Amino acid sequence: MYVKSKKKETLSWVLYDFGNSAFATTIMAAVLPTFYYDVAAKGLGDSVAASYWGYSQSIAVLIVAIMAPILGAISDYSAAKKKFLRFFAYMGIIASILLAFVGEGDYLFASVLLIIGTIGFSGGNVFYDAFLPEIADEQDIDKVSTSGFAWGYIGGGVLLAINILMILKHDWFGLPNATAASQAAFVTVGIWWFIFSIPLFRNIREEKKIAVKRDRSYIAIGFSRVGHTFKDIKQYKQLLIFLLAFWMYNDGISTIIKMATIYGKDIGIDTNSLIIALLITQFVGIPCTFFFGYLARKITAKRALLIALYVYLGIVVLGYFMSSALHFYLLAICVGLVQGGAQSLSRSIYGRMVPKNKHAEFFGFYGISSKFAAIVGPFVFALVGQLTGSSRLGIFSLVFFFIGGIILLKFVNIEKGMAEAQAHSDPASATKVTTQ
């Protein structure tokens, strides 16, 4: 149970995730990809439209990855987290609403708004996450963090369901066609995000502290920290092998999330079926994520993660042969089965092998490095699709990300990794590490 005095702050923090997750579901994953393909990129070749979407995603992730260490430094050294959170939230909200003005052939405008919106979404989350230790006591921090994640799934799913209804039954809402309904859906994302941000902006008070004196720019501080962690992490062999594996397979996972809808559109699956499939993934993912936590306790986290990656490998292979809406529904269920499990187990395995006195530093590197790694997948998908004229080959190219990740993961010895972490945290107690 949360501390009574912090209930309002906790609820306000959770509601922000409930609100901004609509950007991830409706804009990044479901409605905008099909709208981009059918409307914004109208007149371009089919594979070209899918490729341009992939390039837009890569550019957005690259900018976010470059900004992440700078924003992290600002978060740590300034006393203005809420101001920065509000700035980036409004950036994403405004970009979402402006998507309603994208018309036929406006693919460059759509790409620019996607990039700006993604920066707002991801940049805001840096400061949002930084509030967690302030609004949650130590004994409640895991519970509060999980609540934010779960309610984010629910909030994004609820608005996506409403948006699907708007598109399928546009006449019920007084809208002339599905295109106008999609444009209206983008506006609802901005409004939804704004409304559920208000409690956080009103109720969470930033801890009063004096801004830390600094003799360098935030840019210099941010990147020097990343460089220091990169040098330090080489001392942890098992952790480094795991990171290499994670960069490989997580790039495949993030590419599937970002490219699945545009790929389905490119091979002829209708818009309504694609959006419904994304909604299926959203709600299947909630209980299955908890199941993988149970499975990890039964057969170890590494084995459970390998199962998830083998399922992903099958998803990519089957995706190459996919030809109907039924196939896409089945694959959507499969993705929902393993998506949350793979991501949550990756974080917990990494956490076991991180030295106790360097959690913040190493998890910051984990987030930043994964963003840089996630640039490659969409780019490879786009490039292969453009060069071959077939997005099927683009999706099949992801096989190599999962195979590489699985092979590297098999070489990871978590027990040795824990011992390495213990040795660097407290050399005298390195021998006390036991099998988990």
Provide the helix percentage: over 70%
The N- and C-terminal alpha carbons lie at a distance of 28 Å
Average pLDDT works out at: 84
The helix count comes to 18
Major sheet details: none
Strand content is: under 5%
Helices and strands, in order, run as: HHHHHHHHHHHHHHHHHH
Number of strands: 0
Rounded to the nearest angstrom, the radius of gyration is: 22 Å
Pick out the low-confidence regions: 1-5, 427-436
State the shape: globular
- The computed structural class is mainly alpha
How would you describe this protein?
The chain is mainly alpha-helical and 436 residues long. It has helices spanning 7-40, 46-77, 81-98, 107-130, 132-135, 141-168, 178-195, 198-203, 218-233, 237-266, 271-299, 301-321, 325-352, 359-373, 376-388, 391-396, 399-410, 414-425. The longest helix is centred in the first third of the chain and has 34 residues, at 7-40. The two termini are 28 Å apart. The model is unreliable at 1-5 and 427-436 (pLDDT under 50).
List keywords for this structure.
globular
Helix/strand layout:
Layout: H1 7-40, H2 46-77, H3 81-98, H4 107-130, H5 132-135, H6 141-168, H7 178-195, H8 198-203, H9 218-233, H10 237-266, H11 271-299, H12 301-321, H13 325-352, H14 359-373, H15 376-388, H16 391-396, H17 399-410, H18 414-425
